[in-house]
Structures are given as structure tokens and as C-alpha cells.
Amino acid sequence: MGNVFFGFIVFFGLVILITGIFTVKQQSAAVIERFGKFLSIRNSGLQFKIPIFDKIAGRINLRIQQLDVIVETKTKDDVFVRLKISVQFQVIREKVYDAFYRLQNPQDQITAYVFDVVRAEVPKMRLDDVFERKDDIAIAVKSELNDAMSDYGYDIIKTLVTDIDPDVQVKEAMNRINASEREKVAAEYEAEAERIKIVAKARAEAESKRLQGQGIADQRREIARGLEESVDVLNNVGINSQEASALIVVTQHYDTLQSIGEETNTNLILLPNSPQAGSDMLNNMIASFVASNRIGEEMKKQNEARGIEPKKKNKPEKPRNENRDDFLDYGDDEYVS
Q1: Does the pLDDT value for residue 12 go beyond 80?
Q2: What separation in angstroms does the CA of 64 have from each of 29, 61, 93, 202?
Q3: Which of 121, 203, 221, 251 is the most buried (most CB within 10 A)?
């Protein structure tokens, strides 16, 4: 009988000892109450309490926690927008008593303050300003929460505006505006590129025309110099200027006809191109020379009537033409070689 009672005493003592020992995890605290009244706060490690008399009223997490709050509000330009506010908070180690006993639900308290601040700040801004000044909103929320929650034993570490979500139709309109702006910029760049190409092409054409005109002028200058030399050579062998000019015209005419015959793909057409074309051109040239001589004869008569003596010049030999004796009937003093 005595052994049974002793065994019961030992068992009861072990139960009391086991229930009086408890542990507290790292970065947490335990609130101990005795008969329903606050007794002490126990930190991490192995702790003791009196069984039956003392009990663990609750445990407080001392690590940084995050609460995500989604707030829907309206901007100054009447656009409804949803903001996601992430609040990072922590229980102050020295104020565990206040954090445990003064607030029934600290997360609901934080959520209420976030709603109050966001709905006071965002309606003052336009939608674009909400995106640009989201840091200002976060700072306002943090300041308000710190002032309110520090008395309850909570420290607000950081507040972040992690998402700004306007209405779907507003987002589609913003995307269309953005796309239109980009298309406008692209059109401006394309127009500028086209303008540059047109200006460059015009400059190239102008330079080409300038060089082409310079080449034609040089070509005509050389042709005139060659004709002058040809006339001089023919004059040296006794052929006068009129005959030399007629010979050159006829020679060039037949040279051109020959070049047309040699080139099968030529685009050059000489009009007229009949067998009598050379003779016709020569007759026209001679007719112009005759008309010129007649005008000179009239001017000579007028000068004689006025008493102006003509200058004596060497008289060239009259050209002979078997077909027409009066073909080149020049005056004595009018013709100048």
C-alpha cells in the first residue's frame, strides 16, 4: 500500500514538472498569466511556470510580417482604380504587452488605416499622377500608420504600392492612345526619311544637270573650235568660207547617216533624210548668204549716199557652179572672208 502511494506521488510530481516546463521559439514571445492576470513575458528558450496556477495566454510573433491590402478608389479625373498596398510591420520587442492586450486584431486595424489614407490621397491625383507618384502614396500610408500603430506596439517597416490596376476599358483606351502616339512618331520619322530622300534626289539631279550642261557647253565649244580650224585649213588651200561651210554641213550630214546605218539599236533620227537633203541644206545656206550680200549691198549704197567710204578688203575668188552661173553672184566689196 505504501509503495502504491509513493508511486502515485512520483507520477503526480512528474506530470506537474512536465506541465511546468515549456519552450519559446526564436523571434517570438510568450505571455504568461496567473489566474487570468498578466504575469510576465517570456522570450525564446527553455522556460518554467507553475502548473495549474500559471498558463500561456498567447504567443507573439516578433518577425517582420506583411499584409497586402487592396483598395478601390477614384482618381481626380473620375477613373476607378484598384491599388495593392503591401504593409511590412513588426511587433516592437519592448511593447509586447501593448501589442497583445491593446488590439484584438491588429491586421484589421492596419487595413482600416490604409483604406483611410489611400482614399484621402488618390482622389487628389489624376490617373497619370497616380502612376508617377505612387511613392508619395506609400510614404503617406507609412507616416499615418507609424503615428497610429506605434502606440499599440507595432512598428511599420515599409509600405509599398505594388500594383495599380485601372478599369479594363480605361486600360484599353490608354493602350490605344499609346499605340496612336507611337504610330504618329513612326509616321513623322517615315516622312522625314522620305523628305531626305527627295532632297538628296533633287540635289543629285541638279548636280547631274549642271555637269550635263557643262559637258554640252564644252562639247559645243570644242565643236566650234574644230569647225574654226577646219575653215582655216580649207581657206589655206583656196576654198573660201562659204564653200568651206557648205562642205562641212554636207560632210556632217552624210557622217550622221553613216552612223545611223552602223548602229542597229540607235534612237537617232535625222530629218529630212531624203537623197536631196544635203543639196537642200546647201541651197538654203547659199540663199541665206545671198540675202546677206544683198543687205550688205544696200548698206553700201546708203553709206555712199552719206559720203562714207567703204574699207578696202581682199576680194576672194568667186565660187564656180556649172549648174547655176548666178549661184554665187557676190558684190565686189561686200564679201569679207
Answers
A1: no
A2: 14, 8, 12, 72
A3: 121
CB 297 within 8 A of CB 331: yes
202 pLDDT above the threshold of 50: yes
Dihedral through CA 93, CA 97, CA 100, CA 102, nearest 10? -120
What torsion, rounded to 10 degrees, do the Cα atoms 264, 270, 274, 277 define?
-140
Q: 73 near 122, Cβ under 8 Å?
A: yes
Distance CA 193, CA 204 (A): 16
Identify whether the C-beta of residue 159 lies closer than 8 Å to the C-beta of residue 86. Answer: yes
> Within a 10 A sphere around the Cβ of 136, how many other Cβ atoms?
14
Interior angle at CA 117, CA 115 and CA 122, nearest 5: 95
Instruction: Decide: residue 42, CB within 10 A, 0-12 exposed, 13-18 middle, 19+ buried.
Output: buried
pLDDT at residue 178 above 90?
no
The single-letter DSSP state of residue 308 is: P
- Per-residue pLDDT tens digits for 23-40: 889 989 999 998 888 888
- Sorted by sequence, the CB contacts under 8 Å of residue 204 that are 6+ apart come out as none
> What's the burial of 148, exposed, middle or buried (CB within 10 Å: 0-12/13-18/19+)?
middle
Distance between terminal CA atoms of the chain? 173
What is 80-129 written as a DSSP string? EEEEEEEEEEEE-GGGHHHHHHT-S-HHHHHHHHHHHHHHHHGGGS-HHH
Instruction: Give the residue carrying C-alpha cell 538654203.
Output: 284
Q: Is 149 exposed, middle or buried (0-12, 13-18, 19+ CB in 10 A)?
A: buried
